[in-house]
User: Fold this.
Amino acid sequence: MPRRPRVTPEQILDAATREFAERGFAGARVDRIARRAGVNKAMLYYHFRSKQTLYRRLLRRAFSQAGARIQRIADSDAPPFEQLDRVVALFADLIGEQRFFPAIMLREVAEGGAHLDVETLGLLAAVPGAFGRIVARGIAAGEFRDVNPLFAYFSMMSPIVFFLCAAPIRRELGARRLASPDIRNVAAFVSHVQANMRRVLAPDGAAGPRSTT
Amino acid sequence: MPRRPRVTPEQILDAATREFAERGFAGARVDRIARRAGVNKAMLYYHFRSKQTLYRRLLRRAFSQAGARIQRIADSDAPPFEQLDRVVALFADLIGEQRFFPAIMLREVAEGGAHLDVETLGLLAAVPGAFGRIVARGIAAGEFRDVNPLFAYFSMMSPIVFFLCAAPIRRELGARRLASPDIRNVAAFVSHVQANMRRVLAPDGAAGPRSTT
DNA sequence: GTCTATACTTCGATAGAC
DNA sequence: GTCTATCGAAGTATAGAC
Assistant:
């Protein structure tokens, strides 16, 4: 029975996520990823053919997880407005669990998806896809007003990702008294986005239901 | 009377904006910036001390312009909901004019502001600052409901920046039939965000005014 | 599977002539 | 102000022993 390797590829992916998040694809150093994961460079290249392979593998892992969990909400029999609240909270949770991943998303968007291959693109597309099904179902049920599901996706996801990623800059601005320092509260912002989305999707003339939490 | 230099520092800044947007700070190549601007590397280093100096200078230029133009809207005597519509449209316009800048913003946020010095941070902070004054004035006038102005800023700015930056990826997904290909319409998305913000800021019980355009 | 040592390349920055 | 040539540092990737 073979002994479990001391450092698993999984741990290398974790270290790489952090490095790519902090420095970007070009700025990431394979040396540093290896050191952070507790392996040497040769070991890393043994498990992953190249820096790019490593990068794509961690993207696929994160997109798969996110897509599956959103789809689970879509498949639940909760009413549309509750699914909406839940999916907003899920995004914040995902970021809490994978603290370094959203920065990678931001960079990849900025780069125009330069490092994405077809398989990774497919997994990425499943995320707005699953969200879109929630919105479409709400519209079909007459609970949501008729909006473009992809527009709704961007209106929901972008503020969450942006606000949470910008935490270090907001902290810096607060410390230097360039902005009010009291708005670091992530939970408050998540509630704000939930309230926004209820208003955005409420049918004309209705104020939309209050929080379901 | 001295002859105007063939290539002005201004042109170098433009070339650098594009290069930094496409490749990020670490991925940007000084050689390429020089070539794109039509100067040689030594000339570039003559005008700008280092890669980092160049980078900060272009950030300051863009933040100053954006901050000033938002403040101009805030200083106008247009009613709050119209100022809101205008500032959303302004963001889209700014991106149209400085097509490559938002990608730099996205990356800088992802990086936690690692390349920003105090002066640049100050100019950056003026952007949400000016927007916040529009919101605060609307709240004081009883036209907007009471929301955190910075929350409102992120709710407005993030979708615009994200959606426009993601255009290449959306195009790619459409071409590969991984997503519906028909949603490239920037103008439609801007209208969507304007409508969203009116709903977000409308006082409780009111549906908020219709479009003012 | 694990490691050390290193080959090969690229890049930021500068020297120094004009 | 403008240019050519180049230095030195740092990076990805691999060779080859164990």
Remarks:
- Chain B touches chain A through 61 residues (CB under 8 Å).
